[in-house]
Amino acid sequence: MLCLHFGNHILYENADLDHTADVQLHSWGDDLKEAFEQVGMAMFGYMTELDTVEIKEKHEIEAQSEDLDGLLFRFLDELLFLFSAEDFIIPKKLIITNFNTETFYIKCSCYGETFDLSKHPQGTEVKAITYSAMQIVQNPNPNQNQNKVDIFVIIDI
C-alpha cells in the first residue's frame, strides 16, 4: 500500500511483506516522524480498508521509551490499544504533534471513527506488536542523496 497526501485525498506509503507466522509491515517517509505515522497507518490498513473510514473524532495517544526501537514498539502498542480498548477507534489519519528523539517521546493525534462492521470490512486482527526483525533504517540509499527512513516491523496476527 502506498500513501501520499494531496489536498483531501490520502495515499498511504507502506507495504505488507509475507512472513511465515506473522505479517511484516514496511513503511517509509522523508523523516522519522513520517515513517512512524505511515507504519501506524499500515497496521490499521491491515485491519480494515482505510478508504471506508471517515474523520469524525480525534483521540490523542502518547508513548515514551528508552530508545528508538522501544519508542516504535510503544507507539504501535498504544495505537493498537486505541483500537482494542477505546471503543474500537480506527484512524484515517495520524499526525505526530511531538516527536522527541532525545527523550524518546511521541504525542500523536488520531483522526477517525469507531469501527463499525456494517461499514468497515473486517480485515485481519492484530494481536500484538513484536520486536522480532524490527528495523528503523535511516537513509537506506546514501548514494541517492535522500534522507528517507524505512521501517520494518512484524505484527502478530
Automatic annotation (TrEMBL):
<feature type="domain" description="Archease">
    <location>
        <begin position="17"/>
        <end position="157"/>
    </location>
</feature>
<dbReference type="InterPro" id="IPR023572">
    <property type="entry name" value="Archease_dom"/>
</dbReference>
<keyword id="KW-0479">Metal-binding</keyword>
<keyword id="KW-0819">tRNA processing</keyword>
<protein>
    <submittedName>
        <fullName>CLUMA_CG006884, isoform A</fullName>
    </submittedName>
</protein>
<keyword id="KW-0106">Calcium</keyword>
<dbReference type="InterPro" id="IPR036820">
    <property type="entry name" value="Archease_dom_sf"/>
</dbReference>
<dbReference type="Pfam" id="PF01951">
    <property type="entry name" value="Archease"/>
</dbReference>
<dbReference type="GO" id="GO:0046872">
    <property type="term" value="F:metal ion binding"/>
</dbReference>
<dbReference type="InterPro" id="IPR002804">
    <property type="entry name" value="Archease"/>
</dbReference>
<dbReference type="GO" id="GO:0072669">
    <property type="term" value="C:tRNA-splicing ligase complex"/>
</dbReference>
<dbReference type="GO" id="GO:0006388">
    <property type="term" value="P:tRNA splicing, via endonucleolytic cleavage and ligation"/>
</dbReference>
<comment type="similarity">
    <text>Belongs to the archease family.</text>
</comment>
